[in-house]
């Protein structure tokens, strides 16, 4: 008797091994983008490229310290990592449906029978004891419905993993960008403060000349005006630097370390690496958001197989093996064994088009996922292209801005000397000084742009390159 349940279990294993899947074969959609990137930079090749570890990409020690802090304390990243744990658990729940759930149960039933309901005319209590091991309502996955649902859960889990990687890359780039903006605003503040001090000294000089009748009141007011302009700009940059510190603290998830070195020049920050020539274009496919979109597409593709399986019979099994006795002491003795086996088949006949609608919905979800995947590819291509176009002219822009600063400084010195000896008007001094101030601001902006361009490529190429 105890051997009989092995037969349905053996049949169950055979059916599971022979199970099929009704999901359509997955084919990656062709990328709806041009075959080449603008401005060179990357090449169409099957050559492989390694990704940077983030500490290799960010060589500056102060910035590394901030990034380490953000990776530990940033709440958005923490949520993304916890979502991985959540979807991993959900996948394990779904995967568990592939195998029967074995459970043990013990039961006692007692019944009081009145005397007039007993053939012996005696009031009495009857008892029955049972102990069993078995499974209930286990679905035979003949047409791959459960396996396709498990596959969809797995692809969802993988997409969430990629979303977390994307969140980490974005966090690293954002922390670096805010830190560089902070250093830039500090440098601009220092430039503006020195400009204000120079303009103040010039104003006092012109005011004294006006008092002595050498300079006009117009020149004195002009000198005062540009001095106050520099004072207002210095206050503005001081406020921006304070706001940068607040933004950085939010990204870090903790206050700025009190012993953090106060870097005040972009030139003192170790530069981010340049993208080398000839990188393979398959770096684009390694972007976490692109991979996440493809995993979702694969999941919806598997969901079509689950929807198709609803048109076919569903077979579920319930089976137990145990002991049954009227006396507890005899429950586990020889001869008290019992078993039960209950197969059930369900065949959809008339469901008001519910299964057809489910299949249509699954196909529509897959098509939406295809469009979302293609849009992600197009967005990634555009981001890489924009960064490469900007990068192509970066060196020339930096050289030109540096030369402009040098020329403006020479022009200001010359205008000052000419005014001091009475050869030129004070208006030319004002114009030359304003030109120098603007050129210094533009140069700092170009230095910041160069670094943010490297960060844009870091994000666009999925976290670095080698």
> What structural class is derived from the secondary structure elements?
alpha+beta
Largest sheet properties: 4 strands, antiparallel
What is the CATH C-level name? Mainly Alpha
Distance between the first and last residues' Cα: 68 Å
Uncertain ranges: 1-7, 44-49
Specify the CATH architecture.
Answer: Up-down Bundle
User: Which value, in Å, is the CA radius of gyration?
Assistant: 38 Å
- Overall pLDDT, averaged? 86
Helix content: 55-70%
Strand order of the largest sheet: 2-3-5-6
CATH topology tier name = Outer membrane efflux proteins (OEP)
Number of strands: 6
Count of the separate structural domains: 1
- CATH 4th-level superfamily: Outer membrane efflux proteins (OEP)
Order of SSEs, N→C? Answer: HEHHHEEHHEHEEHHH
Strand content: 5-15%
Can you tell me about this structure?
- This protein is α+β, with helices and mostly antiparallel strands.
- It has a single domain (21-98, 142-312, 357-460), classed as Outer membrane efflux proteins (OEP).
- The chain contains ten helices and six strands.
- It has helices spanning 6-17, 54-57, 61-73, 75-96, 145-211, 217-252, 288-309, 354-392, 394-420, 426-460, and strands at 42-43, 103-113, 124-140, 279-280, 314-325, 337-346.
- The strands form two sheets. It has a four-stranded antiparallel β-sheet, covered by helices on one side.
- It is elongated and about 140 Å long.
- Residues 1-7 and 44-49 have low confidence and may be disordered.
């Amino acid at each position: 008797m105890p051997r009989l349940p092995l037969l349905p279990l053996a049949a169950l294993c055979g059916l599971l091994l022979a199970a099929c899947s009704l999901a359509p074969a997955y084919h990656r959609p062709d990328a709806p983008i041009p075959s080449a990137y603008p401005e060179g930079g990357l090449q169409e090749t099957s050559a492989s490229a390694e990704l940077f570890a983030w500490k290799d990409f960010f060589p500056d020690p102060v910035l590394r310290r901030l990034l380490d802090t953000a990776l530990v304390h940033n709440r958005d990243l923490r949520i993304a990592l916890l979502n991985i744990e959540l979807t991993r658990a959900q996948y394990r729940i779904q995967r568990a449906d592939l195998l029967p759930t074995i459970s043990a149960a013990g039961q006692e039933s007692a019944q009081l029978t009145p005397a007039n309901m007993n053939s012996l005319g005696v009031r009495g209590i009857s008892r029955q004891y049972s102990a069993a091991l078995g499974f209930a309502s286990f679905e035979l996955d003949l047409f791959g419905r459960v396996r396709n649902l498990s596959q969809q859960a797995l692809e969802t889990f993988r997409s969430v993993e990629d979303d977390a990687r994307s969140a980490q890359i974005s966090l690293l780039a954002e922390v670096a960008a805010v830190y560089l903006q902070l250093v830039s605003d500090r440098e601009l503040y220092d430039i503006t403060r020195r400009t204000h001090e120079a303009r103040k000294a010039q104003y006092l000089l012109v005011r004294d000349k006006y008092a002595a009748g050498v300079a006009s009141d117009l020149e004195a007011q002009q000198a005062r005006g540009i001095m106050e302009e520099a004072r207002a700009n210095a206050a503005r940059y001081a406020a921006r630097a304070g706001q940068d510190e607040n933004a950085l603290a939010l990204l870090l998830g903790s206050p700025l370390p009190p012993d953090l070195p106060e870097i005040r020049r972009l030139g003192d920050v170790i530069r981010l690496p340049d993208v080398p020539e000839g990188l393979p274009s398959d770096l684009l496919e390694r972007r976490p958001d692109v991979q996440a979109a493809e995993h979702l597409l694969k999941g919806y593709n598997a969901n079509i197989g689950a929807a198709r399986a609803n048109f076919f019979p569903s077979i579920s099994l319930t089976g137990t093996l145990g002991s049954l006795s009227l006396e507890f002491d005899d429950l586990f003795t020889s001869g008290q064994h019992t078993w039960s086996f209950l197969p059930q088949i369900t065949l959809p006949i008339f469901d008001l088009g519910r299964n057809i609608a489910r299949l249509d919905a699954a196909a529509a979800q897959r098509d939406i996922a295809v469009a979302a995947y293609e849009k992600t590819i197009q967005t990634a291509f555009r981001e890489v292209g924009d960064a490469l176009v900007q990068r192509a002219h970066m060196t020339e822009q930096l050289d030109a801005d540096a030369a402009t600063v040098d020329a403006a400084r020479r022009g200001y010195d010359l205008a000052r000397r000419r005014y001091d000896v009475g050869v030129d008007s004070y208006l030319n001094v004002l114009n030359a000084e304003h030109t120098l101030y603007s050129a210094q601001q533009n140069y700092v902006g170009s230095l910041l742009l160069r670094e943010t361009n490297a960060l844009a490529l870091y994000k666009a190429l999925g976290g670095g390159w080698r």
